Amino acid sequence: MDEDKNHISSGSHSINLGSGNSVTESNLHIGDVHNHGPVSPSPIAVIDRTSASPVTVLGTPVKAGWLIVSGAIGFIGSIASIVSLWQHLSFWFLLLLSLTAFLLIIGTALVRHRFIRIPYLPFNFEADKSGKVFITKIEGDCPLCDGKLKLRDIGPKDQKVTYVRCTRNPDHIWNFDFTVLNEPQS
Which residues constitute the domain of residue 82? Predict the structure, then answer.
């Protein structure tokens, strides 16, 4: 029997091709590697700040460290006032105590992380490298539909994680990393 010179032989998980042989218009699968054609990458959500307003007092930018100091002084002063006037406890003292505690917490978080998202509020607090505090809004357009992308906190009550989520289709969701954003500027 006469063997064809262009014969391709295989066996025992091998393919033997002689010189001058070619395999045209075919897919060659070796092991578990398969070529299923071009795979389109998953869409990327692009978000950015749509607004950044500096927090100022009498025209001077507020810094995160100032929030800590003013919050601590106000908190201690409120506690001293409440203790001295315990029998005449007033709503205004409790309001002042709450406000100064809020400033202390916000200032400490901004010094540590430079980004704070407060659930259910349509804005965030951010600080630049120099410590200047900004109120910012972050959003974008959904790459899968014509919805808007917003930041949403998702998960159990004590383990919420911030995600980028479409307002039109809640299945369109991406992880959020605030460290990839540029510095806030006014």
Answer: 46-176
